[in-house]
Amino acid sequence: MKTITSLDDVSFDANGWVPAIAQDASTMRVLMLGYMNPDTLRETLETGRMTYFSRSRNQRWLKGETSGNFQQVKEAFVDCEGRSLLFLVDQTGEGACHTGEFSCYFRSLHDLDQ
Amino acid sequence: MKTITSLDDVSFDANGWVPAIAQDASTMRVLMLGYMNPDTLRETLETGRMTYFSRSRNQRWLKGETSGNFQQVKEAFVDCEGRSLLFLVDQTGEGACHTGEFSCYFRSLHDLDQ
């Protein structure tokens, strides 16, 4: 597996953000999609704790800082074009979602009430 | 498969796009992150074939139309805030990535030099 040596291979968008997928390493369930800027990506890789950039609050967001449900990074990948990131994590606590669900993807599009 | 007729629970961004994660249903590997607009999301749910909106080409993009490596939809989910989609798919052919890799996430950031 190739490794990269610089964040130059990550393409941040015009706002300075890149989408970051968190996947639970034990269940392989996709937990959530957040965004990172260069600072929070560096912090995530240095600390091993998923640290996003909250677009709505326009600030750093250490996942679990309030809830205790931290995400510990096991593996980190960048896609072929550098436009998105994938993190395999150990989800601590009850789950990733603020609703109490383990994954934020608990609503099926096929079951949407029409 | 139930076809949806309302996408009110999906929040498209200012450009009319929503990020869509494709995850291989058998290996559970995350394959890629693309984008959909309302038309290509509807087409995806109706046809059962992942159909993205190419931001670079500014047009509909039926995954596999050129390569033959279609992605057949097994399950479709929207996140708790409606801001991203997750599709469990059967990845046909050799894989999802134009490089020939099965997943677009084949480059590790783990050993990234700070």
Overview features:
mainly beta; about 110 residues; two-stranded antiparallel sheet; 1 helix; Ubiquitin-like (UB roll); four-stranded mixed sheet; globular; homodimer
Characterization of the model:
The structure is a homodimer of 114-residue chains. With 114 residues, chain A is mainly beta. The first copy, chain A, has one domain: Phosphoribosyl-AMP cyclohydrolase (Ubiquitin-like (UB roll)), CATH 3.10.20. Chain A is 9% helix and 34% strand. A four-stranded mixed sheet of chain A has the order 2-1-6-5. Chain A is globular. The interface between A and B is large, with 45 and 41 residues. Strand 5 of chain A pairs antiparallel with strand 7 of chain B, so a sheet runs across the interface.
